[in-house]
Amino acid sequence: xxxxxxxxxxDKVSLTKEEEGLIKQFLTPKKLRKKQYLLQxxxxxxxxxxxxxxxxxxxxxxxxxxxxxxxxxxxxxxxSDLYSFLTGEPATYNIDAVEDSELILxxxxxxxxxxxxxxxxxxxxxxxxxxAYIALQKRLTSIISLPLxxxxxxFTTTYPDIAQRVPQHMIxxxxxxxxxxxxxxxxxxxxxx
Amino acid sequence: xxxxxxxxxxDKVSLTKEEEGLIKQFLTPKKLRKKQYLLQxxxxxxxxxxxxxxxxxxxxxxxxxxxxxxxxxxxxxxxSDLYSFLTGEPATYNIDAVEDSELILxxxxxxxxxxxxxxxxxxxxxxxxxxAYIALQKRLTSIISLPLxxxxxxFTTTYPDIAQRVPQHMIxxxxxxxxxxxxxxxxxxxxxx
DNA sequence: AAAACCCATTGATTTTGGTCAATGGAAAAT
DNA sequence: ATTTTCCATTGACCAAAATCAATGGGTTTT
Lengths: 193, 193
Description:
Two copies of one chain form a homodimer. By secondary structure, chain A is of the alpha+beta class. Chain A has helices spanning 3-12, 17-24, 82-87, 108-117, 119-145, 148-158, 160-165, 168-175, 179-192; strands at residues 27-32, 37-39, 47-53, 55-61, 67-74, 78-79, 94-97, 101-107.
């Protein structure tokens, strides 16, 4: 149940068996069926969720009811409304399951306790958030500097797993496009080469 | 010379005079004239730069020679090509001074040494990068979910200082627009209210 | 003080993506 | 097995932003 989590952890910081056991006490497993919410806009985000299996998405919904996907998370990724988690303010994102999923939850209390008790946990969190920041900055850069067709190619080469598993209209939403436009971009790419 | 830096540091983590002295040994001040480069695309990013005074921008340049601004940094902000800094890969951003500026540089060696010697430094870095991540995620959300006019308003209310000090064509670039389009959006906003 | 440059604005036109609508196929529900 | 539902695609049309081009106000340079 915790294999992927500790694998990712050890990729960043080495752990003894004892430390692993200590951490385990603070983790809560949770299963989520496809389309179930992990978090709803307006609620306070109570957990950081690590994806052991499955796929989730974080998104906003505008007045017209359109979803705008902010983030996908597959196995090995972490998802939350970090601002809400840290401040206790109501969340501005919804998070739900794109597929049946298995998660590992870290509550605010557990997070703070681990930061206190285990310096390696702080290092893990620091490296984890740093990686997320860099990935986000690259995404932003591709949005402001690449033409649409290049952006789509960049996306599919950076995240081939997401491109394969997730319905196209969600990818369109993630890219800030309508499904029709993404479909046309794809057909242009295929016909041209 | 180090006032703003330690002020920001203490906002996140308290420091004794001794600790402050220790950190100071690892910092290098640097002045930059308007338009001077701090980092050029292709070079390795050797430092994290903290802005004591002035304003910098990080940007890419596409084949047509157009700049795409990824980030601004005013007093109290930090700027670098973090990916290049951490991995030693060539940078993909240029960074230069929008105004005459005073910086505090942290080299890779200094960064690693401080992480080793001073747990509070790691905490500072963790909180700092967390804040940057949240800000970036908000920016991304506004890009994919808000209509242009709202996005501009969001920008000016979130960063009134940048909106005032930086030329409009740079803000257009930061928003992924042409200067003409931003100008028209502004005139629409002013005439409408 | 004049010249050169930078920059914001405005107009005319083109390009690009969005909207509305219909179709067909595949997957899920009954 | 058959009906729904969901989803990708395509077409016609519309709206929005980019491009091209010109103007004039400010700065800075000389």
